[in-house]
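Let's practice the habit of predicting before peeking. Look at the sequence and jot down your guess about where helices and strands might fall. Then scroll down.
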Amino acid sequence: MQELHALDNSQLMDLLAKYTSDYTKMLADGSFTDEYEKCKLTIKAIHTEIDLRKNIVSNASGETNITAPPDFS
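Done guessing? Here is the structure:
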């Protein structure tokens, strides 16, 4: 998977939609595999990236709080 910070906002939203759809299907099927956990972690990482971008835009003082997304390898 590409680094989340390298994606533009529309790509990030598309990725969130894909993983959320996959996660929801696995949840409905009761399929709690490693892939399920990977989807869950990826969704959390995407949310973190979105929050980071919102904080960068809204932070008037120019300070940023940068956190690296988890490594899913």
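How did you do? The two ends are 9 Å apart (CA to CA).
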